[in-house]
Amino acid sequence: MLLFSITWGSVSGWWAPVCLLLGLLYAWVMYRRPLNLADKFRYALAAFRTLAVFLIALLLVSPLVRSTSYQPQKPLILVAQDNSASINTFHPAGFNPAQFVTDLGKLKQQLGDGYEVQEFNFGHELSAGLSQTLNGRQTNIAAALRQLNDRFANQNIGAVVLATDGLYNQGADPQYEARNFKSSIYTIALGDTVARRDLLIGNVNYNKTAFLGNDFEIEVLAQAYQSKGETMYLTVTEDGRQVSAQLIPVTNDAFKKVVTIKLNADKKGIHKFNIGIRPVKNELSTQNNVETIYVEVLDAKQKILLVYDAAHPDINVIKQAIEANKNYELKTSLLSDAGTLKLGDYSLVIVHQPSPGTFGTLKELIAGSKTPLWYMLGAQADASGFNAAQKLIKISASRLEMQEVFAQPASGFTSFTLSDSTLQKISGMPPLQAPFGSYTSSVNNGVLFKQKIGSVATSYPLLLFGDDGGRRLAILTGEGLWRWQLAEYQNYGNHHAMEELFSQSVQYLTANGNRQRFRAYPSKNIFDEGENVLLNAELYNEALELVNTPDVKVELKNADGKNYSFLATRNGQSYQLDAGALPVGAYTYTATTKLGNRLFNAGGQLTVKPLNLEIRQSAANHQLLRNLARQSGGEMLQPSQISRLADLIRKNENIKTLVYEDKHYSDMIDVKWIFVLIVALLSVEWFLRKREGEI
After folding, report:
1. What is the DSSP letter of 344?
2. Residue 554: beta bridge partners?
3. For residue 575, how many other CB atoms are within 10 A of its CB?
4. Is 304 within a domain?
5. 397 in a domain, yes or no?
6. How far apart are CA 122 and CA 138, in angstroms?
7. Domain of 555: which CATH number?
8. What percent of the chain has pLDDT over 70?
9. Does the structure show a pLDDT above 90 at 267?
10. Are residues 530 and 564 in the same domain?
11. Could you tell me the CA-to-CA distances from 616 to 98, 196, 281, 627 in Å, in that order?
12. DSSP at 543
């Protein structure tokens, strides 16, 4: 429905009667003398002329024309169906998953034309339509709710129908995301609340690095369901050699125990450990009885130097985050006192906001050394001196002009991996203060976080990594890390994201401290089934400068002896290989290249583990579904009650059609139909006068 009206805005409304009087006067002057016309024609022609002149005069005054449209929007019913493997694996006797999906699809027909029904299925991600495949290997209920809320923001969402067993193995608690919906959530409780007989490794906590000759511990969460009276036989093997074994009696049907295992780091390098529980009779699944971990044994602690020009709250945050990893030893020093230090004693130097007066000291400190550097900028840093000191990024900015920037994870970064929870936490952190200006970077795929200014994502780097003339560099372009530390503790009660960010960054920067001429390494040692296997390679010339002129060949071999051959692609100044999704198993890899007359090779090992997250829990979590429904004003239904769903939605008084009013203002001269009306009035008047012989 569309309505038009005239609004005068800044123009006085008294011009309307003036324009009308002008039209009447014009018509009276033209038709006051008797004509050879019948009175009915004369009055009609006078009316046409009056209206035409009135409209022309209004065009000269130029008021505004307001068009008002009324658009009804039917209530939107969002159906989200869990398509993960647990739905098909664990269900009560007599339940047919495929038939349930078919019955759920009838909701659109049952509600009729008064509702708009949108159907989705989810596992790791949200997809359009319902699905009967039920083969998803991961479940992220929170992400599905968040994507629905983002996709249909500001629309008339009447209700959300969530059909799931309440089990999730990725993402946050769905109850937090559900609070963002202002509509009712109706949950359909799938799965079986009765646990099945199963032994499994629930989790493994361990340090990824250890020191040569020292003992280190790993913590294994051993779980057992419906297995009271059994004895778990837990073993740890290193490269096929058993290094630990324990017998654990199961004392109840929902058994959990954290087992601490002490091992010895007797040899330098990366060690692979397999942790397993011997299967028992009638066990639900044996895939979750084995876990693989990798531990790197180092010669000694990495020494890190933090130099600064003035006190700042970020310095203590940096110190705490780095020292949380016992493999690192941090020393702090004023930049003015750093001349007495030997840079060769340190694996990394962190430079915090060097000012114009101390860049000379910094140059003397790093001269003739290839020790990795991590620059941290801020309001006190000398932008011109920083630009001259390295080649990765140039900032055209005043040191006094700062702006708030949020961290936006960048795609394509593969130098190291941060967990999804850490990336999600950091992207929600308060803003840092970064120099206001333009940023030009020569780094390809080395940006971990970009700057987001307000709601606008930019290409400006916030945290990037690269190589500058054989020296590995990191650059943080903002200050205010203390805000991140406080926010994380306030929201999560820990500093895990900050500690992981610094631990992984420092590990990357110091990983090649001895400057091997050729190095090949995976982005991580353990890949999930279906995940693309990524490897990186770096080649240095005699001047320890990165080069990627020669080809790099990579060969992967699994335990059965099958070979996979690849040619790495050039990525910036280094190499990268995306080997795609490989079959489950343990692999060794060998990378070879030739620079001049010298051959180089590097190797290592990695594992592609089966993604068995969906069989770790067999008992459905209907309490979660009950809570979701109750807090939103909805209701939890059993699959046998699905026929009630349409009636519940129709009876919910909060689910109704909304009518949206849209007002649009435009100058009268821009309304085309007014010109058409004026031409039509004058044309009809001329035609009638012509026909009656008055012209």
Report:
1. G
2. 566, 591
3. 24
4. no
5. yes
6. 9
7. 2.60.40.1930
8. 94
9. no
10. yes
11. 23, 11, 18, 23
12. T
Where in 322-431 does DSSP place strands (E)? 328-334, 348-352, 373-376, 393-409
Where in the sequence is the domain holding 387, given as residue range(s)?
310-510
Phi, psi of 308 (to 5 degrees): -145, 160
Residues 211, 268: Cα–Cα separation, whole Å = 8
If one counts the domains in the chain, the total is 5
Place of tokens 């110190």: 319
Copy the structure tokens of residue 393: 């990024």
For 214-243, b/e burial (b = at least 16 CB within 10 A) is: eebebebebbbbbbeebebebbbebeeeee
Which one, of 119, 121, 143, 118, lies nearest residue 132 by Cα? 121
Q: Where are the beta strands (DSSP E) in 239-301?
A: 241-249, 254-264, 269-277, 290-298
pTM for the full predicted model: 0.57
- Residues 177 and 256 both lie in one domain: no
Nearest-angstrom CA–CA distance, 302 and 118: 55
Give burial (CB, 10 Å; 0-12/13-18/19+) of 681: buried
95 φ/ψ angles, rounded to the nearest 5 degrees = -85, 130
* Residues 601-651: tens digit of each pLDDT: 999 889 888 877 777 777 889 999 999 999 999 999 999 999 999 999 999
Q: Outline where DSSP puts E strands in 170-230.
A: 184-189, 198-206, 209-211, 215-225
Tens-place pLDDT, residues 547-557: 888 999 999 99
Contact criterion met (CB below 8 Å) for 549 and 564: no
Residue 289 resides in a domain:
yes
Residues 123 and 263 in one domain: no
